[in-house]
Model the fold of this input.
Amino acid sequence: MSDWTEIIIKLPAEKSDAAADIAQMTVPYGLYIEDYTDLEQGVQEIAHIDLIDEDLLKKDRTTALIHLYISPEDNPAEAIAFLTERYTAENIEHQITTASCRMEDWVNNWKQYFNPLPVGEKLLILPTWRQSDNPENRAVLRIDPGVAFGTGGHETTRLCLQTLEKYLSPGDTVLDIGCGSGILSIAAGLLGAIKVLAIDIDPVAVKTAVENVALNNHESKITVVKGNLAEKVCEKYKIIVANIVADAIINLSNDALHFMTDDSVYIMSGIIDTRLSEVLAALGSYDIIDVTQDGGWACVVAKLKS
Done:
């Protein structure tokens, strides 16, 4: 375990379930939660005793701790960036601490595991520090995620990339909600989009996305902005993509309508499979045209009701 990094998230106990759903996106192999809100009741139900250790009784009942363990190849810095962005978007107060490894070590150590990654039939994701043969002549998407979410390795991002390839036609316009590293926006440009608006509330993500857009020479196609939809978006788009989390997708279901035309396609990912039915139930104003799943995650494609 010495090469792994422990991430500890402290937050209000009443937010622990929602926070755990978000945290689970970063660790397919599990997490554990310290929540002593119902300590006495839980001990009685499980152990059928009234005597509880005094140290346990002194535990803070108002806060919870979520513990994650991130392997070096999964880039702990990216995981922390993702958690910070998503918790801020959901108004979950939080403090994140780490153990076992310095942050500057993560940013370097994980890179040895990030290899060129073919996605779908047309794209090749290539980290900036790698060279690669490209015998299939794929469109090369160069990426340096830094400490922003989005390398293409996570199932949610791959599902989005594959779905973009399926539904995007040359000449389309694209809105990327919660753009992270900018990977989906750049992919849209490579696949033929003529105009992309990438938006994120996290300044670190925005800075990283701007750098990656420049790295791929897509500044003329892609605009990256910091803010929320209500402040920054006023046009309609042929493709909307949101690789976020179930709760955020549910909350956005009414807002996204305003940026769609009758033939727009709305691609939603970051949905853990246990929340899929809940998300689908919230999309009553849409026709669901496609659902794909991979590794316990789902991607939903919808259009406005006809």
The longest strand covers residues 260-272. The radius of gyration is 20 Å.
